[in-house]
Each structure stands twice: as C-alpha cells, then as structure tokens.
Design goal:
alpha/beta, globular
Length: about 270
C-alpha cells in the first residue's frame, strides 16, 4: 500500500513525512531583506561557488597552447641551485613550444615562471587561497586564483601535457602521487611525469622500487610511469617525445576511424 503522508516539493526535491518543515516559500526567503546571511556558507551555496570556479578556469584556459605543469617548493630563493635550475627549465620548455603552468607562488614556482617569461613564453599561475596569502608572483602573465584545491588540480591535469616535479614538500608530493595514480588507473591518458633532481628524488624512487614494487604493492611496469633525472634537456626531450608519440597515436586512430567510416559508406 502506498504511503498516504502529505507530499511537499522543495523545488525539484520531493519530501514526504516532513517534520517541522519550512513554512515559507523559496521566493519569499530570497526577497526577504532582513534574512540571516548564514545561508551564504551552506553547502548548496558552495556548489555554486564551485561551479563558478570551474567555469572561470575552463574559460580562461580553454585556448591555452600545449603546456607543462611545474611543481616545487615555495621556500627556495634566487641563488639556490634548485631555483636556478627551475629558471632554466621554464626557459627550455618555452623554447620547446610549451606554456609553463605553476601554482603561481614563490620559490620554484616563481623560478619556472621567470624562465618562461624571460624567454617570451606563456607564463601561467594557478594560485590557491591559503591562511597566509602569498599572491601570484610577478612573472605570471596569466593568473587565476582558486578557493578549492580540487578545482585547481583539475586545471593542472586538464590543460597540461606533462608534470615536472622539482624539489618540494607535501604539496609537490601530493601532485606527483595524484598524477601517477590517475595515469596508473587510466583515469587520464598517460602523460610524462618527471622528477627533476636526482639527489632529492632518488630516496623516493628507491622506496617505490625497493618497497612498493618489491612487495607487490604496484606492478613492475608502474616504474616506467616516471623519469628521474638531473638534466633539464633530458626532461624536456622526454616530454617532447612522449607528446609526439601521443599525437602520432591520435593521428593513427583518426586515420583508422576514417577508413572504417569510408568502408561503411561504401
């Protein structure tokens, strides 16, 4: 027997057996100038903020050329070998035809943006709201500021063709492990991931190889998902070759589809 309880509609939502529900309409609450503004901080309102951040990001980055994300510590300073190498990396990526995308902050991010900017390339910063505001570094010529980490991460993955991790802390490790997980699980098309700085990254690579792979936590083939190198030129060459292979695969797939389509037409 179907329930006979009164049915209330809250917009598209059906509510049955409501206890002490709203006694006003949505329009009435919207137009009430004396209403409490706590609703601005509720989850439904946050959904709109989230949506707007996605829209802003998609709109700003939609026509960006091929790009590479560069991650690294915000704490290094000019003169530090890692900082100077990141400047070299930004310059080399630009000369190879890539835009450079960073988190927009200081340190390694600033260095990569500086290298791209000095080489007259596209220098992009995707900033994030933090308790201690950092702002975007002065070498960014296209900048976006995000409230939510997961939206910012989506932009890094969607609009760049490779990740390069220079020496960094938890944030850099987070980007590395998320990227390699997305590739490993086929959530995104495989793209090159580079750990730049052998002395810094070798202990992590050894642990991945000697513990994770050795104990069967990952497949041996997963060790091929990233490159550890000290050489900026090797890193850029690795990225270019992977990009070329991906483009060739897409072209071959298109040719195959075209032949099949023509066969159907005949």
């Amino acid at each position: 027997m179907a329930p006979n309880d009164p049915v209330h509609m809250r917009g598209p939502v059906l509510v049955r057996r409501e206890k002490g529900g709203e006694r006003t309409t949505t329009d009435q609450r919207l137009l009430d100038k004396n209403q409490d503004t706590d609703w601005l901080h509720t989850d439904p309102w946050r959904v709109l903020r989230i949506q707007s951040e996605f829209v802003n990001g998609f709109g700003a980055l939609a026509e960006m050329p091929d790009a590479v994300s560069v991650f690294g510590s915000a704490r290094t300073r000019p003169g530090d070998p890692a900082y100077e190498q990141a400047v070299e990396l930004g310059r080399a990526l630009t000369e190879a035809g890539y835009a450079v995308v960073t988190g927009g902050g200081p340190g390694q991010m600033e260095a990569a943006n500086k290298g791209a900017w000095e080489a007259n390339g596209r220098s992009v910063g995707l900033g994030i709201e933090l308790p201690e505001e950092q702002g975007l570094n002065r070498w960014v010529d296209l900048g976006l500021h995000f409230r939510y980490f997961f939206i910012r991460k989506t932009m890094f993955v969607k609009y760049t063709q490779a990740f390069v991790c220079t020496p960094g802390g938890f944030g850099t490790l987070d980007e590395f492990f998320e990227a390699i997980t997305l590739v490993q699980t086929d959530k995104i098309t495989r793209f090159p991931i580079v750990l730049l700085g052998v002395d810094f990254w070798a202990p992590l690579a050894d642990w991945i190889r000697g513990t994770l792979a050795e104990q069967g936590m990952i497949s041996a083939s997963d060790l091929d998902l990233f490159l550890v190198t000290d050489s900026v030129s090797e890193a850029v060459e690795y990225i270019c070759e992977a990009h070329h292979r991906a483009a060739q695969t897409a072209e071959d797939r298109e040719d195959l589809y075209g032949e099949e389509h023509r066969g159907v037409e005949r």
